Amino acid sequence: MALKVLIIGAGSAGPILALYLKRAGHEPFVYDVYDPINAANSGNPFFFGDIGGAVSYHPNGQRVLNELGIGEAACAAAYPMSNAKFCKIDGTVLADIPFPEDKAPRSYNALRSDLQFLVGKACTENKVKIFVNKKLVSISETDDSVTATFADGSSATGDILVGADGTHSKVRNILFGDSSKSTFTGFMANVGVCKLGKGVGENGEDLFDQGPFNIYVDRFKKHHITVSRASETMLSWTVAQLQSVPEELATSNTYRPHSDLPKQQRRLAVMVEEWGVPRYFIDLVRNSTRITEYGVFEAPELESFHKGRCVLIGDAAHAMRPDLGQGMNVSFEDAGCLGLLLAEFPDDFCKAFKLYDEMRVKRTQLVAATAKKVSKLDVHDSQVGAFFANMIVRVFIGFFGKIFGLYDAVGTYEFKAEVEKVVAAERAKQTVKK
Q1: Distance separating alpha carbons of residues 171 and 308, to the nearest angstrom
Q2: CA angle, 82 then 88 then 94, to 5°
Q3: Per the database record, which ranges form the FAD-binding domain (predicted)?
Q4: Fewest Cβ atoms nearer than 10 Å: which of 34, 42, 223, 298?
């Protein structure tokens, strides 16, 4: 039986799931609130445009892309992570963790826009239908269907509905109420992108990176910076600080770049110079080609990711802090797991949803909790606490992390093997019952 699947959200997880469903013979239809670049031009990939900064995809996320046949292209457009440096705000290195180069798949940094373009291209090639300017208003169910109604007065009806509409998910809010809304962490961030090379700066200065992935932190003043090499020629940075701002301001961002780029460049360059950052980073900020501001949010834990004919994936299910670089990766895991389960049980989506819950709820709670612990390590109310946190990074991450592989349990997850294990157990139960 081919299921007609309504997918709300065309960010990361939604189109990935649509590709899995298309491969399994189902009929996915994707709806997004935005009107991205090229969306109205037939033959062009669905593309949000040059927005956002860098993302990291690790072995767990890479396996999902490989399974769809787009992993090689994604790696070619990215930059391999050979190591990650943890530093004080002035550039003093506390820990330098190497990433194994002899294991496949490896970890990579990429521009979000580059990766999204490749996924959109795959959707176009596989004739996945994506509709834009579709702001979800309500969801209604009958015994045999589910209907999504949009702000423009249109509606769509299918067999099941998937909420892939991100951190501030309308689907999650409809299914589980106001208590399921994401909460503001207190961190406001700016992400920027700039071109690297000799003499490419506005005043002819050379712009080079200091490694594939660097983190600079002032734990007492609550300042946090990341710098990611995203390709051979491009670099992305993020500046975040814990500050008191009205939550409505933090939620008002539409993740579009600042319209007055020079003004934001000057403001941020002056700010980070006062923080005492390395000079090269100030040059990166002053020469960025786009800067986007956003608030950092996290979703409360849910006991289940599905209700009735609806199910959540990605940030809609478990928006988490970015401190592990795993948000997109576990979203890909969600899409891969749900896609494979619906391929295994095309006539019983209820069973697929149940098994999806068994696989994904505890797994994503573990990753979110780990990311939160790492985030809290970066914030201390005393100089003494900040000093000991730096020592923890230097000793336990810098030394033990190299030996034991601190994040292996998170980043090496094999989604397909886990699905096969769960499906085999379910088949065995069915055999016993017969």
Answers
A1: 12
A2: 55
A3: 4-174, 302-345
A4: 42
For residue 246, name the pLDDT band (cuts at 50, 70, 90). low
**The amino acid at 182:** S
How far apart are the C-alpha atoms of 352 and 354, rounded to whole Å?
A: 5
- A 10 A CB-CB count for 385 gives 13
Average pLDDT score over the chain: 88
User: What is the rounded CA–CA span in Å between residue 35 and residue 236?
Assistant: 25
Residue 199 CA to chain centroid, in angstroms? Answer: 33
Domains and CATH numbers, the chain: 4-78+126-181+300-379+408-433 (3.50.50.60)
Answer whether the bond into residue 105 is a cis peptide, omega within 30°.
yes
User: At 200, is the pLDDT very low, low, confident or very high (cuts 50, 70, 90)?
Assistant: confident
Determine contact, residues 295/188, Cβ cutoff 8 Å.
yes
| pLDDT score of 65 | 95
Residue 200: both structure tokens together: 């490419």
Residue 253 has pLDDT above 60, yes or no: no
The pLDDT tens digits of the residues spanning 31-73 come to 999 876 655 444 456 777 788 899 998 899 999 999 999 999 9
Q: Which amino acid is at 105?
A: P
